[in-house]
Every structure is written in structure tokens, then in C-alpha cells.
Amino acid sequence: MTRDIETNEVTVEFDTECPSCAASIAFDPASGLLECPYCGYRAEIPIPEQQQDTIAREINFHDAQARGNFDWGVEKKRIICEACAAETIYDALQVADTCPYCGSHQVMEASASDTLAPNGVIPFAVTKQQAGEAFHQWIKGRIFTPSKAKKSAKPDAFQGVYMPFWTFDTNTMSHYSARYGINHYYTDREGKTQVETKWYRTSGIYQQHYDDYLVSATNRYDRDMLAKIQPFDSNNAKGYKPEYVAGFLAERYSIGLDDGWRIAQQGIHGDLDSQIRQEIRMRHRADHVQSLQFSTTHDDITFKYVMLPIWLSSFQYKQKLYRFMVNGQTGKVGGDAPISPLRVAIAIMLTMLVIGIFYVLFGESSYY
């Protein structure tokens, strides 16, 4: 079941309308100011009166039971894409005629609905031009991608979107039991080296603190694609202000707090599995670890609901859609690209040729 966020209702006196020409102003990543793209009007983003409001604050997970509504601080409208069903949040003054996810023009304004606003945001630091340049270098370096596909990828089609993420802090304590093996080497009667593994049982407690464990709050993209552009420095996320998202799209979260925490627990469990195995190897100087079982308790759980900046792009090649992302904080690029079977075949043949040459030069010499 999806849960809402407990937070205080806030009033933000902010209007996206330019006071000079009545156009829609937007946040500029290059200057960190609010700017009007038509008349050049510029304004600084006010600094919060309370110092603790400058950064995204942690919210106690277990206390988040009584939930209050929280608006976005400025009038918004909700747009639905009839082609891919994406829901996007726009400023009321923004024109929405193209879906940023699939490029479809079949978009329509939906009826207003209660939407929860984040309590943290990482503002865009990478401009649209810089995102295009980073994307151009990335696609240029894809050696298995056909040249025609590289030419058809239009980096100027990037759209800046704030995507929803949950972050979780937790102190973990894991009680574990396992078997570890230590290799013993000896020489048999024929003079050959043999190995014998002796097995032992062990148990113990392993403690670990997780800070800002990141979980995507959208199911729009697979986690592998989002992982390609990470990490984000979410520890320095600013307290949410509508000025930071002005002029950009913001995706509505589709994975609630409870589901997000379950996903985080699964990821933390896998990470702890690796860490505990490494701990056993180091403590006992073991060569193998088997039959590891452990149970974990989580204490002092806190969370944040933050919006992370991502530049999106997509293009079609041979009737197939390829999506790309650029980290709006660091400029790291990730995505899928078409593969040329011919280039892959050539690479395989060259690899086999190198292996064959290596064997001829060095393999036969071992017989002498």
C-alpha cells in the first residue's frame, strides 16, 4: 500500500510569471538564478530564513503515520501521454505538446489531483548544451553502434526532468552463521600439488550504517538504466523550493514510501551478503564461504523524498526507440544504443586472431 509523506504544510510566495513580460521564468543551471528566456529578467532565489531549511531534512520513517497534504508551492498542471501513459507535472504557464519520455504528441491535460511535493531537490548544475556535448562524446565512443545511428541521435532534443527518488538512512545489525573453508596444499606421491579444503563453522554479529541509500520512486525506467548515470550527491540536496524546478518537468512518483523501503531492504540485504562474506574471509583468512544465513534489524530509519535532475533524450533507429539520460548534477551519460552485428563479428574475429597469434608465439615455446 502506498503511503504519503508526513510534513508540514508550507506557503511559498512564488510566481512563475515574469514580472517584466509575463512569460514563464525558469531556473538556469549555469548561473543558479531565475531567468526569463524572452526579456532577460534575472532574479536570485531567496535564502530560507531558517538555516536548517537550506538542506533536505531527514524524516523519521516510523513517525510518518499522520500525513498532511503538501503542495508544490506554485500552481501546477498534470499532463498524461496517451501513447505511453507517462504522468508529468508542469508549471501552469508551461506549454506541453510533446511527451518527454516517448516523443509522442498525443498529450492531454488531466484533471487536477492531490500530488505530494518533495522535501529535497538537487538543482540542475549541467546545462542543456553541456548535456548535449557529453551525450555527443558518449555516443561517439560507442564502437559497436552504427554510424547512421550516431548521426540520427539528436542531442538537442534533450529535456530536463526532475525524477523522484527516496533516500533511506538506517543502522543495521545482522546476526549471521556460515561455513568457511581454508585451503591446504600438499604434494602427492607422484609429485603433483593437491589442495584439500577444511571446513569450519562460524557465527557473529555484523553492524553497518547506510546513509542516503537511493531508491528510484518511478517505474518509468528500469533500474539498470538509472544506475548507469549514478551516483548523485544526495547528501547535499537542498531543501525543496519551487524556484529550483521552475521551467523543468517533474515526474510524479509511482513507487510509494512503503514500497520504496521494501526495495531498499532488498538492496541492502544483497549488499550485506557481500560485506559479511568479505568479513568472514578477512577474519578467518578463509578461501571460501558457504551456507551464509543472516537476519537483519533496522534501527533509526529516516528518509527523504528528493527530486534529482536528469536530462532525457530519445531517438528512433530502424523503427526502434532508444532512450538516453544525462546526470544533471555530474554530466554522466547512460543509455542504450543500437549494436551493429557486423562490427561485433569483426571484433570477435580480431580477438580470435590475436589469441591465435599469441598461442603461436608463446604457446609452442613452452614445449621446448
Number of strands: 15
The string of secondary-structure elements, in order, is EEEEEEEEHHEEHEHEHEEEH
Which descriptor suits the 3D outline?
flat
**Tally of helical segments:** 6
How much helicity do the residues have?
A: 10-25%
| Largest beta-sheet details | 12 strands, mixed
Distance between the termini: 71 Å
Average pLDDT level: 80
Low-pLDDT windows of residues: 1-13, 65-70
Q: How large is the radius of gyration?
A: 26 Å
Strand content: 25-35%
Q: In terms of structural class, how would the helical and strand content be classed?
A: alpha+beta
Number of self-contained structural domains: 1
Any key phrases for this structure?
368 residues, alpha+beta, 12-stranded mixed β-sheet, 15 strands, 34% strand, membrane
What does this structure look like?
This is Primosomal protein N' (Replication factor Y)-superfamily II helicase. Keywords: Membrane, Transmembrane, Transmembrane helix. The chain crosses the membrane at residues 342-362. It comes from Caryophanon tenue. The structure is a single chain. With 368 residues, the protein is an alpha+beta fold. The protein has one domain. It contains 6 helices and 15 strands. It has helices at residues 128-140, 147-152, 223-228, 242-245, 257-284, 341-363; strands at residues 26-28, 33-35, 42-43, 59-60, 76-81, 87-91, 107-109, 120-121, 159-187, 193-216, 238-239, 249-251, 288-317, 320-327, 333-335. The strands form 2 sheets. Strands 4, 5, 6, 7, 8, 9, 10, 11, 12, 13, 14 and 15 form a 12-stranded mixed beta sheet that branches. A 3-stranded antiparallel beta sheet has the order 1-2-3. Strand 14 (320-327) and strand 15 (333-335) form a beta hairpin. It starts with 25 loop residues before the first strand and ends in a 5-residue tail after the last helix. The model is unreliable at 1-13 and 65-70 (pLDDT under 50).
